[in-house]
## 1
Amino acid sequence: MAEWRAVPGYEGLYEVSAAGAVRSLDRTESVTIKGRTSRRQRPGRRLSAPPNSAGYPKVGLWSDGRVRTAGVHALVAEAFLGRRPVGTEVRHLDGDASNNVVANLAYGTVSENAYDAVRHKTHGQTRKVTCPRNHALAGRNIMPSVAARGHRACLACSRAKNNVRHAKERGLPIPDLRDRADYHYRQIREDAA
């Protein structure tokens, strides 16, 4: 059976499980209809948690006539891992934003979370296969200085930009950036062969 704990700040209203589910609790409400106030029993239920555009399941929590949208991962972490330390965020250890099991969550810095994304290949930089000029980002065409930081940048385009910058500084005719980049890309591919 799953362990349930109160959602911090919503004690007596909502609970969250170690498996990442959120439920409302049974409660009695005051309802006024045509000037007559009566008390009504409202049964608790499991809340649906549709994912937002980034894939994180969210729920709406009502209290005092206001709704607060919260990420399920944040609710699970706060209930089971304790209060979030200042300067940290919730990390998904397996890289799956929909896996909100307490064993998959940890607090960490923004940097640790970014390194997790690189390791899980969910970071936007790790999915890039070509540069804007359609040069393959593979092998020797990745700039080593940025690759060490988990990013991917086209070495051929970088060299072409340097050629243009140096030509401007020296007052020389400015080469076409695309032609220069394609030239450097061919050179890098020939050197690798």
Note: The chain has a mean pLDDT of 89.
## 2
Amino acid sequence: MESDATQWSTLEAFHALADRATDKVEACVQTRPSRSLVFRFALHGEISRLRIPTPQAPGRAEHLWEHTCFEAFIKQTGSPAYHEFNFAPSRQWAVYGFDDYRKAISSPRLERPPQIDVRRTNDRLELDAFVDVQDLIARPAPRSLQIGLSAIIEDREGSLSYWALKHAPDKPDFHSAVAFALNLSV
């Protein structure tokens, strides 16, 4: 599974909770050999007006979604089960497994932890997360995956805005079936 081109998607802000410092959030996913994925995020705006977690030693951490964080959701087409990945600009990460919509939470062990690269300028924050998903995808390999890409952005005052490929109509819910808006052939 290897992609030839990168197609960036612009994430939509959940209208009721959008912040004024963020101009745009873009995301894409690239496939790599050996069932690896690269999730790429680009946050455009007045970065100085946002709370960006400071770099730390890479590792698993909890509650990353309470601050600026990028997320990827992966499910095999036709299955209710899915995995959620959280990637923080601090280079900390988390992964959770679900049997169905927000049910049976587990914390899968990964043979190789995600590698997170972060680049920052005055008007842009970029995060690339390299993830080996071979232990999470059933064998034989599925022909397609459904992907949800999202972001939580915290401003200096501590308010959160929610960005996703698609939102459920009533509240920001990245676990909603609507949010799995990207189909990826593998």
Note: DSSP finds no helices and 13 strands in the chain.
## 3
Amino acid sequence: MSAEEHRASSPTQLRVALVTISDTRTEATDTAGKAARALIEAAGHTVTAYRILRDEPVEVEAHLRRVCASGNVDAIITAGGTGVSSRDRSFEAVSRVLERELTGFGELFRMLSFAEIGAAAMLSRATAGLAGRIAIFSCPGSEAAVKLALTRLILPELGHVVREARR
């Protein structure tokens, strides 16, 4: 089957959990989370869970494992904690949950980001992969980065990724 045929036979209504990872954001100031929700729902998917967590790797990992085990999601999208500062530690937590990495996501995100922000794109540790049959995408926490990741990479292929994960 071609990529187009795979997309055509992929699910179009998925259940997505959102997790904002930040030491400073609240529901009122989480513009990345709000943008993600709006884009996901506009694409016909349902946001089944939303949470803001501090960038504490043990808590982030435990939460992701609980969400994966809940049976209520097809995908998880995280925003935040992917940089290189001393508090940006979600990459390590997400990586421990992933059983299979989708290296192309991070590579393509940094390429697209480079076109927008230049060499600073190399500071992103955006990553994605599968935890069992659940797709997980870990994005930087800025609203612009989340919009870029969702519109150019995640939403166009989300059904296809989930279809393949279920096989």
Note: The first strand starts at residue 15 and ends at 21.
